[in-house]
Amino acid sequence: MKTLAATVPAARWRWLAVAALLAAACYAPFQLAPFHVFQLTMVLVYAVALLGLDLLVGHAGQISLGHGAFFAVGAYATAIMLDRLALPYPLTLPLAAGTAFVLGLAFGVPAVRLRGLYLALVTLAVAIFLGPLLKRFEAVTGGSMGLTLAKPQPPAWSGLAEDQWLYLLTLVVAVAAFLVAGSLLRSRAGRALHAVRDDEVAAEVMGVRLSSYKTLAFAWSAMFAGVAGCLYTWVIGFVSPDSFTVNLSITLLAGLVVGGLGSMSGPVLGALFVMFVPGIAQDINDAAPGVIFGLLIIAVMYVAPTGLAGLAGRLVKKVPRKE
After folding, report:
1. Does residue 272 form part of some domain?
2. How many domains does the chain have?
3. Prediction pTM value
4. Among the four residues 1, 165, 180, 188, which has the most C-beta atoms within 10 Å?
5. 295 domain-assigned
6. pLDDT digits over 42-61, tens only?
7. DSSP string across 30-89
């Protein structure tokens, strides 16, 4: 068995690494060009979305090909509240999260009766029909043209540029989302989700109510997607049905698997993959970027079958430590 002296330094190094990453994240917008700041902002947005998907897939063991639909719900809820109701920006964040949570809860009730490929097909259907549904209610959603909105402006006293302000806002919300998710996973509910994922029969014997926790997993996952959708609307200032096609849901799931299921670093690594790899694939071959993107996913999964987070963990373990 490992001694306490051997395990404590490892935990301390993890906290030091997190602190160093946060310090670098706070420093980055003041050193990078506006376009690169925007890219990092979108990485944070996708990280929050993947955090919710990881709760459902990585920690609860449920499959979803419709996560982009809840992302779109958060984005459109925010856009409608800003454009049609003229609500203040801070109020749109909890309302978008709440809207997505309620819809996730409503979807989770019938979804708990399904599993495997059947559940995957039902969630995929949600992602498919959402786009045409948004186009039908043109008076509210703007139809195919979407909605254009003003972005949150930095306070005059801050001296920040718009891109820096949006980045720091998104960073604060993303850090809060990860803290909430971490607290949830360390609680009794988190242990119940892991029990459901590992063995449903054993979990039920131990007193875990499968239907309740599966439904809550969908609701919590949708809530984080709604937060990410709200941040997306703040950052982009525009929403349209074409921004939330079924490809978004598939890309999010692929990014999570590549980043690593069931880890707090997996959503961040997956967000980097989602943000930058499609552009790299486009640069390699303009004619068939999808083919290149797929080959890059295969290459990464061959090198890191448990995701980039798992690969990083194995590399860290190989570093010699003093006993």
Report:
1. no
2. 1
3. 0.91
4. 165
5. no
6. 999 999 999 999 999 999 98
7. GTS-HHHHHHHHHHHHHHHHHHHHHIIIIIT----S-HHHHHHHHHHHHHHHHHTS---H
